[in-house]
Amino acid sequence: MNQALSTKFEVTDHVKNALAVSLRGCEELIPQDEWLAKLARSQATGVPLRIKLGLDPTAPDIHIGHTVVLNKMRQLQDLGHTVIFLIGDFTTMIGDPSGRNTTRPPLTREQIEVNAQTYYKQASLVLDPAKTEIRYNSEWSDPLGARGMIQLAAKYTVARMMERDDFNKRFKDGRSISVHEFLYPLMQGYDSVALRSDLELGGTDQKFNLLVGRHLQQEYGQEPQCILTMPLLEGLDGVEKMSKSKNNYIGISEDPNTMFAKVLSISDVLMWRWYTLLSFKSEAEIAALKAEVEAGRNPKDAKVLLAREITTRFHSAQAADAAEQDFMNRSKGGVPDEIAEVALPLGAGGAAVGIGALLKMAGLAASSGEGNRLIEGGGVRVDSSVVSDKGLKLGAGTYVVQVGKRKFARVTLA
């Protein structure tokens, strides 16, 4: 154990609970004995630990998969520790090569600033803004200068850098690795030196970079940080990691009804994984709920509670109530209270409009062809009746048109 942590402090029940909170759902906690010692020292001295999470604002929006690590930050924040939300405005200009087979193009300063503002606004739905320290790594990275960068680079070897899987594979495959990519883990590691962090969090794909931070802190004579990695959340399909490109995600800015319904769509097995990684309920509460389900309670009850919790977090309790009612209406074949109102013209001379064209014009299908395919699949209803005839034409009047479970429009043809 590090010499600075060699003084023994009592491991109280409070400290044991803090360790349990830290370990909940995590992939790795390295080294666990040092983290326990840090927790014990903090409890004995009353000095909160400094917990760092760095995010590069490479895209403007985040989904609930991204909030897994933010949830862990909130849990540790609620224990009284100092949470540092670090926006990597400097490192984003380098481009993080983690998990990449090719060089990631850097963003412009303007793109970074826009994304950073959106990131923090969204992260504040999970973290307590009043207790969150916001920092930008350009604060210390810009003043470092060429001399400081060379001195920093001297503290890490090329051999150690090439131990990283993505660099190693690209080198063996003959794919290019730019010299500036070696600077990324060094600069991320230097963030830990500048902030004197006690713990850094990240996804499993960030393990190498987090360990670089621990190494550099030792090089600069600091007590090294511990690292905690969180797993990547499986998406709605329960197989692939949550991703917009896989269309198995829930965006935290999605409307409440869609968010609630998407949570209800996950499997009963995946539900418990989501409870561990996304819920703020205690492990004891989750265990009690799981025992009730195993004893015969409908698992849908537990899923509704999870959907309500997630929807409330990103919207409000009132929005969650309305979303639950909306879901119940839809499941019974009912029509939601609020649906889009669409006014469309009849054909030339007042001719009726074909259902495929109507779906396209009402924004319920991308094209008439897609509308016809939806009809073939039994996914289209007009006034609650399933449409089976692709040749159906609708004359003047008002109709409630439904596509799938969640798309509705009240269409007036005149």
From TrEMBL:
User: What gene does the UniProt entry assign to this protein?
Assistant: tyrS
**Catalytic activity from the UniProt record:** tRNA(Tyr) + L-tyrosine + ATP = L-tyrosyl-tRNA(Tyr) + AMP + diphosphate + H(+)
Q: Which UniProt keywords apply?
A: Aminoacyl-tRNA synthetase, ATP-binding, Cytoplasm, Ligase, Nucleotide-binding, Protein biosynthesis, RNA-binding
Subcellular location, principal: cytoplasm
Tree of life domain: Bacteria
| Complexes and interactors | Homodimer.
Alphabetically, which GO biological process terms does the record hold? tyrosyl-tRNA aminoacylation
InterPro entries named in the record: aa-tRNA-synth_I_CS, aa-tRNA-synth_Ic, Rossmann-like_a/b/a_fold, S4_RNA-bd_sf, Tyr-tRNA-ligase, Tyr-tRNA-ligase_bac-type, Tyr-tRNA-ligase_bac_2
Family under the similarity heading: Belongs to the class-I aminoacyl-tRNA synthetase family. TyrS type 2 subfamily.
EC numbers, comma separated: 6.1.1.1
Q: Which GO terms describe its molecular function?
A: ATP binding; RNA binding; tyrosine-tRNA ligase activity
User: What is the role of the protein in this entry?
Assistant: Catalyzes the attachment of tyrosine to tRNA(Tyr) in a two-step reaction: tyrosine is first activated by ATP to form Tyr-AMP and then transferred to the acceptor end of tRNA(Tyr).
Q: Name one Pfam family in it.
A: tRNA-synt_1b
A cellular-component GO term for this protein: cytosol
The name this protein goes by in its record: Tyrosine--tRNA ligase
Q: What is the protein's species of origin?
A: Rhodoferax sediminis
